[in-house]
Amino acid sequence: xxxxxxxxxxxxxxxxxxxxxxxxxxxxxxxxxxxxxxxxxxxxxxxxxxxxxxxxxxxxxxxxxxxxxxxxxxxxxxxxxxxxxxxxxxxxxxxxxxxxxxxxxxxxxxxxxxxxxxxxxxxxxxxxxxxxxxxxxxxxxxxxxxxxxxxxxxxxxxxxxxxxxxxxxxxxxxxxxxxxxxxxxxxxxxxxxxxxxxxxxxxxxxxxxxxxxxxxxxxxxxxxxxxxxxxxxxxxxxxxxxxxxxxxxxxxxxxxxxxxxxxxxxxxxxxxxxxxxxxxxxx
Length: 283
Hints:
The protein is of the alpha/beta class. The protein contains ten helices and 14 strands. Helix 1 runs parallel beside helix 10. The longest helix has 16 residues.
């Protein structure tokens, strides 16, 4: 049994001995700035599992990408991919919210007029991007390891879960104003400094967490969530113990009840170690 050092910042955290479900975002939260998972996390995960705590990875990434990032434990956790639009446990589907097919035409037409905005059509098995943009293709592979290039976005014949939009100069200024009007019919969510996601209105991390809570008979009072960006807000609202990262968007800091260190300062790991310490102390 490993002994954890009680970092001073942990003293400001609440008692977490009754936590049964931990949900964490990936980019900007569990993953550091190099998109890597720490050995410290894996050590904490194994101890949490032995104490009966269930872990959920919730991300805007595709399932394939999350699985490969967490391949060592991927078969032991719940994975809420595509911002919760596609949630699985050991290859068993828990929740799926397809993009409304009758609403696809409008955003696709809009994107044809905005060549500065790159689009990723996300499906269950892979992502689709337009052919002819090698720089974007080499960049997007870090988030969508399974993908295919197509001549036109309308050439995608598989059911779409989400449309992820990217602009190199920023999402809030260069993407969101052009798609905000779609929010009457779709979930329009700023998911990162350069990303905006379009999806079914029920396709968000909060819905995925609620499905898992119901399945496992775990209440929000027994749930802890960690996130850094605006696509984490619904998820944080599904937990009585919501943590923003030290590098979080100001709106996420405002919404969360507690704050931990940044993703490069082991903010997630500190919280997990506090859960372990509190559960051990209660035994």
